[in-house]
Write a structure and sequence with these properties.
The chain is 33% helix and 20% strand. With 163 residues, the chain is of the alpha/beta class.
C-alpha cells in the first residue's frame, strides 16, 4: 500500500485461532468506521513480522492493532506500547513465525530501512491462543464493545483525527 497520508493502521491476527482474531475483528470495524478519513490508511495483515515492517515505508506514524498474551492482565485489557516499549519488552512478544515484532523492528533499523518516526502497538489481552476457531471466547466477546471504544480512542488520539 503506497502512502496517501502519513498514518498507517494495520490490524493483525490469525483468523482461525480463537481469540487471536480479535485484532482482525476490531480492525475491520475500525476500517468501516474510519474508512472515509483522509488522514489514515487502514489494512489487514496476516503473516511474518519481518514482512510486516516492509509495509511501514513512507509513513510517519504506524498503528498496529493485535492480540497480546502477557499472563498478567485481565482478558480484554487494552494496552498501548510505543516503539521503545516494544523493543524493551521483546521477550514478552511471542510469534509463530520464527521472529517477533521487536526483533523485526530492530533488524529493520540495523538494515537502514525506511521506518516511521512513531509506532504504536495497541495490544488486546486475550489470555491464550491455543484453540482453533473463528469465534471469540465468551469472556472476550462480552467485552468487545468496551475493547472497540478503547482502541478507537487510542487510534484517534495517536492519529490526531478530528472524529
Amino acid at each position: 500500500m503506497s502512502p496517501k497520508t502519513d498514518t498507517l493502521l494495520i490490524y493483525l491476527g490469525n483468523p482461525i485461532i480463537k481469540n487471536d482474531c480479535i485484532g482482525i475483528r476490531i480492525g475491520k470495524r475500525l476500517e468501516r468506521d474510519l474508512g472515509s478519513q483522509r488522514n489514515i490508511n487502514i489494512c489487514e495483515f496476516v503473516g511474518s513480522p519481518l514482512d510486516l515492517v516492509t509495509h511501514f515505508a513512507g509513513y510517519q506514524r504506524v498503528i498496529l492493532v493485535d492480540s497480546i498474551m502477557t499472563g498478567d492482565l485481565d482478558i480484554g485489557t487494552v494496552v498501548l506500547f510505543n516503539e521503545d516499549e516494544i523493543l524493551t519488552h521483546a521477550r514478552n512478544f511471542h510469534s509463530l513465525h520464527g521472529i517477533n515484532l521487536p526483533e523485526a523492528l530492530a533488524l529493520s533499523k540495523r538494515l537502514g530501512m525506511d521506518m516511521p518516526s512513531r509506532i504504536l502497538l495497541i495490544g488486546i489481552e486475550i489470555g491464550d491462543a491455543d484453540e482453533f476457531g473463528e469465534t471469540l471466547s465468551e469472556e472476550l466477546h462480552e467485552k468487545l464493545e468496551d475493547i472497540y471504544h478503547n482502541v478507537f480512542d487510542a487510534v484517534s488520539g495517536f492519529a490526531g483525527m478530528l472524529i
